[in-house]
Amino acid sequence: MKIAMIGSGYVGLVSGACFADFGHDVVCVDKDASKIERLLDGVMPIYEPGLDELVARNVQAGRLRFTTELAEGVAGADAIFIAVGTPSRRGDGHADLTYVHAAAKEIGEALTGYAVVVTKSTVPVGTGDEVERIIREAAPQAQFGVVSNPEFLREGAAIDDFKRPDRIVIGSEDDRATEVMRQVYRPLYLNAAPILVTRRRTAELIKYAGNAFLATKITFINEIADLCEKVGADVKDVSRGIGLDNRIGSKFLHAGPGYGGSCFPKDTLALLKTSQDYDAPQRIVEAVVAVNDTRKRAMGRKIIAAMGGDVRGKTVAVLGLTFKPNTDDMRDSPAIAVIQTLQDAGATVKAYDPEGVEQAKKVLDNVDYCDGPYSAIEGADALAIVTEWDEFRALDLARVKSLLASPVLVDLRNIYIPDEVRAAGFDYTSIGR
Ligand code: UDX
Q1: How many CB atoms neighbour CB 337 within 10 A?
Q2: Where is the active site (predicted)?
């Protein structure tokens, strides 16, 4: 199959490279000439484990190409994926569809024969109808189908998630388009991934409902963690105790500083906007958004409390800045609010992150960025672990203690065992234990 991928960001690049790896002929398109130039040189625009090798292998095999010319990718393509960004619109939180609509218009102008146009970007319900209308307007005679095919991959595990998805969702209004999509995904469902074909609007909603549900699960356990602290229970055991019930499931029940990233914050807000527009309030999701927003600064205050309540003139070492490990993504990372809260209270912050420092510098001022965990810890009055990178899981505690001015350890990801760290002489604070 010939596939065009419009937008070579996280989803577009990973999906394009994986489709190529399955033997399809893929052209990735992006308007950003410098991004395409770097990709042609083998330089990835994002940090994602295994991606550079996957891209190199498929470029070499001639199955994966990059271009800034949309028409070049669209010519002769069986399936044209729209994987451009849908950021939160400034001011009202609606998904900004400018890039999706612009791509649809250009695709319409470039269509050469029957093709299926696939929205892979996370788009509000009804966007497929609008994409269809725009293409029809640009190309009144063209033959095409428009389907919704949401992507569920996670950053940091993107390639594996794409290749071994829990399910593939295809929202389609006609059989011809559905059949093309079945061919596109043939290698994956041969891998036993169930394929769910629904109407287009249903598929669009599945993505938002899924992300909102996961955000709810996280937020639920975070509030239970707060209760655990008050009543003297252990949230890790509560998570395990409820997660072993198959109806609940054990995943996404890790209490922490609140969810961040490029999807949950943006998609929950967009779902709320849609629910208002259609007069079907989503009160649970409203509460989730509000609880998660206030939690991030509350985590900063938790560190301040662990340090005795006054941090003026004191230094905090922060380990982990990205919204989760194995990414360089700082978007809506809890570390931002945590650090700002510490700074607002008069503390100085030293920080280390294995991949996130470059992005962190764009959003956080006056932070002393260090080149390793121990140099960040040296001389600090407390250590706060904000993101659970593997390299923070087995720190040399004796060394940490000797480097800290006072042995205060705040573990916002529960990666240490309380008894062990206390036995090592730390004043240890974690979440919900
Ligand atoms: C998410 C969805 O998982 C994915 O299906 C969708 O396509 C995009 O959004 P991603 O944002 O990459 O993926 O990260 P994810 O691993 O889901 O984590 C999101 C946030 O939730 C992180 O800040 C993470 O630290 C937090 N989280 C996750 C918790 O606090 N506790 C958990 O148990 C799980």
Answers
A1: 21
A2: 263
